[in-house]
Design a protein that fits this description.
Number of domains of chain A: 2
Number of strands of chain A: 13
Number of helices of chain A: 14
Largest interface: A-B, 33 and 30 residues
Number of helices of chain B: 11
Oligomer: heterodimer
Structural class of chain B: mainly alpha
Shape of chain A: elongated
Number of domains of chain B: 2
């Protein structure tokens, strides 16, 4: 079999690249920056998606919410008992929670009522709160260091003491969270004893979730049933969509880049023309010159690709993606400042590879062909 | 419609392919119309130059197309998470009307492209360039197929309905479905498996006789027999599950991506086996036999190892 890589030609290609230093450095920098940007965005999305999927795994299988004409309302606690009669269900627990708007800072806190372990926490939560770190920082700015005043629906105040805060490990989930007893929560949101925000159902066999969900739907047609899988799919859709929109915008810069390369590769200096002439005179065929140009393209684009990916790795996983991260996590005051978990996302590397290397090489095909087929006598004149 | 980065990447590259192959198509028509190696006209000289451009572009597209095909399969697997009911690529392909034709067309196109390159190579090595008109006529045909493939691909990605329930591979590849595949379930497994091994035996015989036409023919049959026996028999040993007949699931992590290896070996083996039609060289026979044997050994090992470990076969032969 004929040798796959001609090392002399490869050496010549490198030499030729070095001779055209300024032009090639310019191209490499642009291509590296493009791959860097694209890779960084995909790394961030996949990290956040991973983190969120971890969170979803801890959620209950099914959430049942009451709707009236499509609008969300409090659900009857008694419905939990009827749901329990469906076979295959481990538990059906009414939850009480909601968002509380804190006007001073312009943020929403998530208020969660504790029921399941209430006995264990009874003393702490009797008149107290457990808060996330983000909440603590926001409250501190408004000088609420030891207690907080909730405004009830009738306009009076409910003073609760801050008894503790969450660990930093759970920041993605607990940053904007305030934990309190169900009774206090009912007072704040004016929910009476027979109502709850929603009912969470846990199902023993994951394969039965879909069936159980459709049974609940049949039992209460005016409820909205959300399964864990629905959440996962919508997460994937959201992040695919965000990454996709970014990529769609990115296409414009990709084609601009295509044109720049086409233009750069077409413009020949007299030095280069002379070089081609000499090569032809010493017996290079059109195929050889095309091959040499192809090597040049491969070297530049692979080099730029690797540089771009390394830059993206450092930017995202070492510097934690400043600025870019905000596109995906939002700008809220209570935004979580979590570190992006490291995931080696091979799929991203493949996507970025397909979007950089082939596009660069395709942009150089026609210009290199023009160069390779120049008439020797015309060039050497 | 699904707007995921993978799909967009495929679409962008499709666009590039259309752009470049259209250039080649125009050149092909010109060459087909007025190629004459003995002519000394300037137009012939231009055509000779252009034929270089054409073959460079085709080489480039082929080199991209192979990894892109793997990437396509991978994308299907990923989309299967989003479509309710689908568990692997099979369900995703079945979700639209065109999916199954698309995958077949993709495979055929890869064979044709590879075939074209071999033709091109032997054409350039011969000073009289005897195949030039033929190869560009062939390309015009490939071009039409390629455009059709890209049309189907775009159509498929745009017609996904995320809300719709699709079938999973377990139900698609079972005797209950009314597809072409279900007809296979009425054929005895032992017949399929013996056909597969007998076919391999023919490969060995024609390898020793170096009869290129029969060798190529047995290779064509070998593709069909391999795929059928893989779905019906060998696949079940990869999954260690007698009821699972999917040809896509073993492309996933759970089975260590063994599918890519199997299909790759099968492609390398049978493709080189087909090449001998015009290049009756020992090299191609050897490569073909090597990869076909590799394929055979690996699938047989799955059965063997299962038998040694458990002492029984999955289903009565």
């Amino acid at each position: 079999m004929k040798k796959m890589i001609n090392f002399y030609l490869l050496e010549y290609a490198i030499g030729s690249l070095v001779r055209q230093k300024s032009k090639n450095i310019f191209i490499t920098i642009i291509l590296s920056l493009l791959t860097f940007l694209l890779t960084a965005v995909f790394f961030i999305t996949s990290s956040i998606r991973y983190e969120l999927n971890q969170t979803v795994d801890a959620l209950p299988e099914i959430i049942v919410a009451q709707t009236k004409g499509g609008k969300h309302y409090d659900i009857d606690v008694s419905k939990a008992d009827s749901i329990l009669s469906i076979t295959g269900i481990n538990s059906a627990i009414p939850r009480v929670w909601g968002y509380y708007y804190f006007k001073n800072a312009g943020v929403n806190f998530s208020l969660v009522g504790v029921g399941e372990f209430e006995d264990d926490y009874k003393e702490i939560l009797e008149n107290g709160l457990l808060i996330g770190r983000g909440v603590r920082d926001v409250l501190k700015k408004s000088y609420f260091k030891e207690y907080f005043n909730f405004i009830l629906s009738d306009g009076s105040l409910l003073k609760l003491d801050i008894k503790g805060e969450f660990d930093a490990d759970t920041e993605l989930e607990s940053n904007d969270m305030i934990l309190m007893s169900k009774d206090n929560l009912r007072k704040i949101f004016d929910i009476d004893e027979t109502k709850a925000t929603d009912i969470v159902v846990s199902v023993a066999n994951p394969d039965e979730v879909q069936t159980v969900a459709s049974k609940i739907q049949l039992l209460f047609p005016n409820t909205r049933i959300i399964t864990k899988n629905d959440l996962k799919i919508s997460y994937q859709n959201i992040f695919d969509y965000k990454g996709g929109v970014f990529l769609a915008l990115f296409i414009i810069s990709l084609f601009t880049f295509f044109i720049i390369i086409y233009d750069k590769a077409s413009g020949l200096t007299s030095e280069q023309t002379r070089e081609i002439g000499i090569l032809k005179a010493v017996g290079f065929t059109i195929e050889d010159i095309l091959k040499e140009k192809f090597y040049e393209g491969i070297i530049i684009s692979l080099f730029a690709y690797i540089i771009g990916v390394i830059l993206a790795f450092t930017f995202v996983y070492i510097f934690n993606a400043p600025l870019l991260q905000n596109i995906f996590t939002g700008y809220s005051e209570l935004k979580t400042s979590f570190t992006l978990p490291f995931i080696l996302d091979i799929q991203t590397l493949v996507i970025v590879f397909f979007l950089s290397v082939p596009i660069y090489i395709s942009a150089t095909i026609i210009p290199s062909w023009r160069v390779a087929t120049m008439d020797a006598e015309e060039v050497m004149r | 419609m699904i707007l995921s980065p993978e799909v967009l990447t495929l679409l962008i590259l499709d666009f590039l392919f259309v752009l470049f192959t259209s250039i080649v198509f125009v050149i092909s028509l010109q060459i087909w119309k007025s190629w004459d190696l003995n002519s000394t006209l300037a137009s012939q000289y231009t055509l000779e130059k252009r034929s270089f451009l054409a073959s460079t572009i085709i080489k480039f597209i082929f080199v991209i197309k192979i990894p892109l095909f793997l990437f396509f399969i991978f994308t299907l697997d990923k989309i299967s998470n989003v479509l309710t009911g689908a568990m692997c690529g099979a369900g995703v392909l079945d979700a639209t009307d065109v999916g199954n034709y698309l995958i077949m067309l993709k495979v055929i196109n890869i064979y044709l492209f590879a075939f074209w390159l071999v033709l091109n190579n032997s054409d350039l090595q011969n000073p009289t360039q005897p195949y030039t008109k033929l190869k560009f006529a062939l390309f015009s045909f490939i071009y039409i197929l390629l455009i059709f493939e890209i049309y189907l691909e775009v159509d498929m990605f745009f017609s996904f309905e995320i809300e719709k329930l699709v079938s999973c591979c377990g139900s698609l590849y079972s005797s209950s479905s009314d597809s072409l595949i279900s007809a296979l379930f009425h054929v005895d497994n032992s017949l399929l498996v013996s056909l597969f091994y007998v076919n391999y035996l023919f490969l060995v015989i024609f390898y020793f006789f170096k009869n290129n036409y029969f060798f190529a023919l047995s290779n064509t049959l070998f593709v069909i027999n391999s795929v059928f026996s893989l779905i019906m028999f060998f696949g079940t040993y990869i999954y260690e599950l007698p009821s699972h007949h999917c040809p896509f699931c073993f492309l996933q992590t759970d089975y260590y991506f063994v599918g890519y290896f199997l299909y790759g070996a099968l492609f390398m083996g049978t493709f080189n086996g087909l090449v001998v039609i015009f290049k009756n060289e020992l090299k191609y026979y050897k490569i073909s036999m090597l990869f076909n044997s590799l394929y055979l050994v690996v699938v047989s090992l799955y059965v063997g190892v299962y038998y040694i470990r458990n002492g029984v076969l999955l289903s009565p032969m």
